[in-house]
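Notes from the pairing session

We agreed to fold both candidates in a single pass and log them together. This is the raw record for the first candidate, unedited. Please don't reformat it; downstream parsing expects exactly this layout.

Candidate A
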Amino acid sequence: MSGQAKKRIVVLGAGSVGRRHLRNFAFLGCEVSAMDPNAERIAEVAKEVSLKNSFFSLEEVLKNAKDFDGAVVAAPPKFHINQALELLGNNIPILMEKPLAKTLEEAEKLAESMKNNPAKVLLGYTYRWWPSLIDLRSKILSGEVGKPLRAEFNMSAHLADWHPWERYQDFFMASKDLGGGALLDESHWLDLMIWFFGMPGEVFAKIGKISDLEIDTDDNVDMIISYENNLQVSIHLDLYGRPHEKSIKITGEKSSLAWNFENDLDRNIMFMGLAEDFLAVLGGEKKIKCGVPDGINVLKVIEAARRSSLGGKSEKVT
């Protein structure tokens, strides 16, 4: 950050991803503060990074709004839109963790509020910052596989293994009310699909809970997604699989491409890239790479999938 004033960043939510953001922004030379209603979480993160300030409510943060150049919304999805509206109302640009919101209706409320506001919201679909996935997209767009005919996205990872330091039943992912579950949290894969191929035409989906996990949200998602150019996409997401698997296969008229998580393990690379982009956005050096419109597009597919699963038939993405 040479030649620039040290950026002052506040992170809302000191859970796993919030702590990662705090570490990364501190590493990048920022002055960091944290907000979490859980005092134990604040105490834990204070052992890892030097906090300028600690807050236990959004109200406390907003009273000090002038002290921040940017904010990271890393709370559960239930709180995303209300926190974003409050922050933007105080002219604080946002790095928003995915998904943008629990529902399309909530997300559109945010978009409406931004129409006459030069607000900045960078949405953290972090896989867009993963070098191997950037390379995969470049190969698709350059025509290396020819016309894409089929794409397969697979994510299978047992929820109890995600945060071994806590009971998975206490993790927001176990709560429908907080915005957990495979469909919302793993919407990375829908964002990647749209990033690679654009918006689809229709979706057939089955969403439910089929395992013995002690959660009240979905742990299994299967989707067949159709494009107007005849591309067929299958997406499978689950929270019960062992060993863990994250993979993509693209089959085209010329050849095929494959990507596998196991060959690319340093996840923090993408989070650092996201943080660096946010600082560049704050400095006026870069445009938003992934923003509110992208989050709304993902939620349009999610809403179509929800309708399809309830009705047992394909649904248009509208």
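Candidate B (folded immediately after A)
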Amino acid sequence: MKKIDLTRNSEELRDLKAGEYALLSGVIYTARDQAHKRLVSAKRGPVDLKGAVIYYCGPTPARRGKAIGSAGPTTSSRMDKFTPALLKRGLLAMIGKGGRSEEVRRAIKKHKAVYFLTYAGCGALLTKYIKKAKPVAYKELGPEAIHRLEVKDFPVIVSIDSKGKKQGHPISQS
């Protein structure tokens, strides 16, 4: 299992191979359908996507003393129609559950990005890896707002690597 510091070197992500497990530390952003729609339609988005990692997640409100509520992955294919445009803007990686379209796989390869899976059905467990959370854009969307998350050893599996190679995996394939 590789530990990846997102603040240091994006090349570490690009060197990962399909099927490898990794632990991500650094900043990731949540975004779901409505946020993606707005990001694509805006000439300049509220978040700089160059080198960014988006987690397809709509977290629940934080409980007292916690950084965030349940934060499990959303089905990634719902973002497929927006993904090529966001990759073109410099998006480095995405985290979600389930498969991606062939068009997205080709765009991932073209832009040397990475698509990760994380554990579906484990939203409460995944919160232990989220150290800080703050809504940073589209707050009126509630759980679909973009949140800035600081993560430590967030568990992922490379589903599509930067060369476009796919790896099916028993977790998060729903």
